[in-house]
Amino acid sequence: MVSAIIIDDELYAREELIALLKETGQVEIIASCNNAIEGLRKVNSLKPDVIFLDIQMPQISGLEMLSMLDPDTMPKVVFVTAYDEYALKAFEDNAFDYILKPVEPSRLAKTLKRIKSTSVRVDYTPLLQEQLELIPCAGYNRILLLKPEEIELAYSDQAGVHILCDGSAKSENAVSCSLSLKLLEEKTCLIRCHRQYLVNPTAIREIRLLDNSLAEIITCNGAVAPVSRRYLKTLKDRFALS
Length: 242
Known about the structure:
The chain contains six helices and 15 strands. The protein is of the alpha/beta class. The strands form three sheets. It has a seven-stranded antiparallel sheet with strand order 7-6-10-9-8-12-11.
C-alpha cells in the first residue's frame, strides 16, 4: 500500500482525487490539505511515499512548496494541474509525474504503476528556486509568511525549528517554522553560527568573544545566539575581524 498526501486548494479537486485513489485499493490517503503551508507540515511529520500536488495555489504555489521540502527526505511528487500538455513539457524530465485535470482513471493507473515500480530518486533541482522569497511560520492562532530579511535568528531544539523576527528578541515570541535549518541556510541570507543556530548577518550588532575560543552574537533587538569554535573563524573572516 502506497501512502499519499493530497495538496490542492480546490475542495472538489481534492475530493475527486481521493475517491479515485480509494477506488484503486492501492493507496492509503494519510492527509488532505488545502494549502501548501499545511501540506508542508503534514509532509514533514507523516513522511508519505508520494504527494499529489497542485501547481497553482494562493500564497505559496506548488513549485514554491517543492523548493521548501528537504531534498534528503523528499517523497515522490506527482503534479496534478490544469496546465495544458504543451506547458507541461518542461516538467517531463524533471518531475516524477504529472496528471492533467480533470483526472482520468486510466492516467492515474499509469502513475500508480510507476510509483510502485520505481525506486530511483528523482532530481527535482531544475524545478527548485535557488532562494526562498517567503518563509512559512506558525504563531498563536495565525500563519505568517516572512521575508528572509525580516528574520534575526533561527534555531532548533527538540520541539523543532523556531524563528525570531525583527523586534522580537525574547524566545517566547518565537514562531515555529516547518523548514529545516539546513534548508534555511542554503536558500536564504541566514548564516550558520552554531550547529543549532542561524543568524541574519545584517541583524548582528555585536560579536562578544568569550573564553575557550567561544563567542556569542547579540542582535540589533537584543537576541543572543551562541557561536561555536567551528564557525567563529568564518564569522571573523566575513567581517574582517582579527
